[in-house]
Amino acid sequence: MLSPNLPLKELRRVVIAAAVGNVIEWYDFYIFGSLASILAVKFFEKSHPVAAFLSTVAIFSIGFLIRPLGALVFGWLGDRVGRKYTFIATLSGMGVSTALIGFVPTYAAIGLAAAVTLFVLRLIQGLCLGGEYGGAITYVAEHISDEKRGYYTGWLQTSPTLGIVVSLAVIIGTQKYLGDAAFNEWGWRIPFIISLLLVAIAIYIRLSLQETPIFQEIKAKGQTSKNPWREAFLSRNIKYVLIASVVVLGQGCVWYSGQFWALYFLQKVQKIDVLTSSYIVGIGLLIATPTLVFWGWLSDKIGRKPIILGGMLLASLTYYPLYMALGNYADPKNVNYGMSILIIVILVNYVGMTYGPIAAFLAEFFPGRIRYTSVSVPYHIGNGWGGGLVPIITTAVYLNTHSVGWALVYPIGLPAIMFLIALFVMPETRKMSIWTEEVQATRA
Fold first, then answer.
1. Cβ atoms of 257 and 392 closer than 8 Å
2. Nearest 5°: phi and psi at 331?
3. How far, in Å, CA of 402 to CA of 407, rounded?
4. Which of the four pLDDT bands, split at 50, 70 and 90, describes residue 4?
5. Burial class of 438 by CB neighbour count within 10 A (0 to 12, 13 to 18, 19+)
6. How large is the angle between the packed helices 304-329 and 358-365, nearest 10 degrees?
7. Count of beta carbons in the 10 Å neighbourhood of residue 161
8. Residue 46 pLDDT exceeds 70
9. What is the dihedral of CA 371, 19, 163, 351, to 10 degrees?
10. Helix (H) or strand (E) holding 30
11. Please, are residues 387 and 252 in contact by the beta-carbon 8 Å criterion?
């Protein structure tokens, strides 16, 4: 099959439609974490604030840990039914579950049932996200010619970061409008409820999309997989799933350590208020987001492997001095906004190096008939487990040791180990075409 030569306007529509849905999904996923301090006192017993906060972070982390299961379920559906309707279904589930969090009564009203309900809704969020992102990667990659895949999927990779920015912007705007007292009392519910409107817009945009050219051809020829799970995990393809998981474990840890734990660090270690920390992280993310596109573009020129592994190595070597510097500049009594934001920009640049090219790498690494499943599972093992454990591990270690150095052992150690393994097992995929019959075929 020849790669499509889509007009620039059509390429933009494909990327924007996929990215808009992702931005909303990640907005939904991260307002929970951004409001963890408030949720802790709303849904848990107030007399033990540290335990309540850790319980909230644990529920936040559950959403990550369940993601590979969502990848299995929706990956199977995506390879059997199609890419388009599968990630419309995941987007709908994410939006409804997020909005419902905004309506759950507090611990003071219904006791332990509040935390249980929050837990269930967080599980649904994680399941839906597990099916969303692999579908978006697959959908965009299967519209793009081989020589520009890193660049266009790099645009898609900005969507999780932009999702965090949108969540912070909505939180800041709501808090500024209502004032601290009203926001802490009931206004925190608004960012969750707004999700319904955002999801409705994203679904409307996605409904106008067509199925991908590769899936259309596979379906027309009767070559869709009868059992994507068996072909992905009970064949020699499992070797490639394991290699991809190693790469994404390192990438996922860098992603969450460089963005999300930076927010936790400012709030829980430096004791900076939600508004100020949101400003610092939000501005840093906006400035550094173009690095995702840049590194994706550069991976089309020099390869995926050196850039992804370079990001892991730099993160491992410099996290400690960077976070120590952030602690010095982000003094709650005298915040140096310029230097604090600059450090966030450097941290997010490492995210750009590891994350910008990863979608192209994963799409090129797996055959078309089981691509949705094969991309989704290692992606969510890496980002759901490797990255998703960052908030709970780093926060728990810090609260027990009061040592930033000990809290950073996991964010430094995991990328370092994955770098050493991937150095020997990760292939370069830049010149692998996804449009050939050989790559579309399954690995028996």
1. no
2. -80, 120
3. 8
4. low
5. exposed
6. 150
7. 23
8. no
9. 60
10. helix 8-34
11. yes
Structure token pair of residue 430: 């830049």
Neighbours of 104 (CB within 10 A): 22
What's the whole-model pTM score?
Answer: 0.85
Q: Where are the domains of the chain?
A: 8-440
Rounded CA-CA distance 355/351 in Å is: 6
Q: Confidence class of residue 438 from pLDDT cuts 50, 70 and 90?
A: very low
**Looking at the predicted structure, is the pLDDT value of residue 48 above 80?**
no
- Per residue, what are the HEC states of 318-375? HHHHHHHHHHHHEECCEECHHHHHHHHHHHHHHHHHHHCCHHHHHHHHCCHHHHHHHH
Specify the amino acid at residue 369. Answer: R
Could you give the count of Cα atoms lying within 13 Å of 80 in the half-sphere of its Cβ? 13
Close Cβ partners of 230 (under 8 Å, ≥ 6 residues apart): none
Query: What is the gyration radius of the CA atoms in the chain, in angstroms?
Result: 21
* Tokens at 333, concatenated: 């009594």
Amino acid letter, 243:
I
Q: How is residue 209 written in tokens?
A: 């999309």
Q: How far is CA 71 from CA 128, 189, 220, in A?
A: 8, 29, 25
At the topology level, CATH places domain 8-440 in Growth Hormone; Chain: A; (1.20.1250)
